[in-house]
Amino acid sequence: MPSGLPGGGDSHVRSSVHRVFTFKADPEKTQEGIEIYKDGYIPEAEQQAGFVEAMLLGDVASGNGLAISIWESEQAAKASEQSGFVQQVIAKFAGVLTEPPVNEGYEVLARSQTTVRAL
User: Quick one: 33 exposed, middle or buried, by C-beta within 10 A (0-12, 13-18, 19+)?
Assistant: First the structure.
């Protein structure tokens, strides 16, 4: 069911902000990076005001990937940066990344979401 479409839809979805880190990691350290993300980033992110969701996407062979976090608002995303949280997270990945990640923010412009039902 579509929501958050221009001109209507779910205003909460429209106001959310996605922070996208594009990164290059050492392919031989992929599993280490995944563990840092799951055990070191996600629990701490869940404690940040305005945090909604996070996901890690990557190509294991090349080490290229995206770390996406969703925030309730631009203010919440900026607050996590200004508090030093983002810098602390990046530091945790120092031994895995081959170059500094690129951080960009995006507003949701349109969205479609399907609910998966248990069988």
Answer: buried
